[in-house]
C-alpha cells in the first residue's frame, strides 16, 4: 500500500502539490488523472523521493520513505516514467536486466533464474525478436514496452506508471491494459484517457492545480459536472446496456478557439 498524507511540493516559488492525500491499496490499480500541469508526474516523483516534499508524509507499506535508503525505494517501487531516455548503446536485454538488478542487487544478478525472468518479461511485451537490438534502433512505442518489461522483471511489490500507453498502437495499448494488474500488487498509473481510466482503475485521484479535486471509485469521480469544471470542457457520459461507461467531450458552447472570431461574428 502507498499512502500520501497532506503532501506539499514547492519549486521555483510555485506550489506544485498542495496538501495532496490519497491511498493506493494493495491489490488495486489507482489512477491519477487531471489536466496538463495538474501535478500528476510531480506526485509520482514525490512517491519515490525524486522531488523534495516540504510537508506531509509518504509511506510505502507503512514505512515512511524519508527513513528508507534509496536502494530500498528502488527495489520496492518499480517506475515507468513518461520520458523514455535510456542509454542508446544498451541492448533491450541489458535494459530489462536492470529491473532484475534492482530486485536482486548487483552481486546476485545473472544466473538462470534471472535470465529467465528477463526473457519472460521481454516476451510478455512482445519484444523477443528485438531482444538483442540496441535501444537506439527502437521506436517510441517499442521503448515504452522495454520500460514495461523492465518493471515486470523487477517484480516489485509496487509500480508507478506515467502514461504507459501514450506511444502505443491499438493492439499494444490493449496488451498493456491487460498487463496492468500483473506488473505489481499495487499499481499507481497516470492516465489521460478517462474512458480507459474508468475501465481499468479501481480508484481515481483527480488532480487540478496541484490539489485533489476528486477521489474515489471512477463512477464517483468521473461525473460530467466535475470533469467540465476541471478540464473546461462539455462532457456527456454514456453508458451501454452492459454498464460500460464512455465519455464524449466537446468545447463548451460559449467557447471559441479564436476569440477574435467571436468578436467579429
Ligand atoms: N522542477 C520544476 N520546477 C518548477 N516547476 C515545475 C517543475 N516540474 C514541473 N513543474 C511544473 O509543475 C506543474 C505540474 O507539472 P507536472 O509535470 O507534475 O504535471 P502533469 O499533471 O504531470 O502534466 P502533464 O499532463 O502535462 O504531463 C507544471 O506547471 C510544471 O510546469
UniProtKB/TrEMBL annotation:
This is Iron complex transport system ATP-binding protein. The keyword Mitochondrion does not apply. The keyword Nucleotide-binding applies. It comes from Plantibacter cousiniae. Transmembrane segments: none annotated. Keywords: ATP-binding, Nucleotide-binding. It holds the Pfam family ABC_tran. Residues 2-234 form the ABC transporter domain. One of its GO terms (molecular function) is ATP binding. PROSITE patterns: ABC_TRANSPORTER_1 (PS00211), ABC_TRANSPORTER_2 (PS50893).
Amino acid at each position: 500500500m502507498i499512502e500520501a498524507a497532506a503532501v506539499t511540493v514547492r519549486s521555483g516559488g510555485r506550489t506544485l502539490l498542495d496538501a495532496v492525500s490519497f491511498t493506493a491499496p494493495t491489490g488495486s490499480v489507482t489512477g491519477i488523472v487531471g489536466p496538463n500541469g495538474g501535478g500528476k508526474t510531480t506526485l509520482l516523483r514525490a512517491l519515490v523521493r525524486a522531488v523534495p516534499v516540504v510537508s506531509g508524509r509518504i509511506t510505502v507499506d507503512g514505512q515512511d520513505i524519508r527513513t528508507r535508503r534509496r536502494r530500498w525505494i528502488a527495489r520496492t517501487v518499480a517506475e515507468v516514467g513518461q520520458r523514455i531516455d535510456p542509454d542508446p548503446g544498451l541492448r533491450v536485454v541489458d535494459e530489462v536486466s536492470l529491473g532484475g538488478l534492482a530486485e536482486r542487487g548487483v552481486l546476485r544478478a545473472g544466473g538462470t533464474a534471472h535470465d529467465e525472468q528477463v526473457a519472460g518479461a521481454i516476451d510478455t511485451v512482445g519484444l523477443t525478436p528485438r531482444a538483442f537490438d540496441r535501444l537506439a534502433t527502437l521506436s517510441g512505442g517499442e521503448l515504452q514496452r522495454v520500460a514495461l518489461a523492465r518493471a515486470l522483471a523487477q517484480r516489485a511489490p509496487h509500480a508507478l506508471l506515467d502514461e504507459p500507453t501514450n506511444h502505443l498502437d491499438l493492439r499494444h495499448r490493449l496488451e498493456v491494459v491487460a498487463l496492468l494488474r500483473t506488473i505489481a500488487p499495487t499499481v499507481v498509473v497516470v492516465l489521460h484517457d478517462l474512458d480507459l481510466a474508468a475501465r481499468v482503475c479501481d480508484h481515481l485521484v483527480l488532480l487540478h492545480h496541484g490539489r485533489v479535486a476528486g477521489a474515489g471509485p471512477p463512477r464517483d469521480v468521473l461525473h460530467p459536472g466535475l470533469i467540465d469544471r476541471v478540464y473546461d470542457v462539455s462532457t456527456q457520459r454514456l453508458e451501454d446496456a452492459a454498464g460500460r461507461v464512455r465519455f464524449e467531450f466537446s468545447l463548451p458552447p460559449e467557447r471559441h478557439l479564436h476569440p477574435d472570431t467571436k468578436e467579429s461574428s
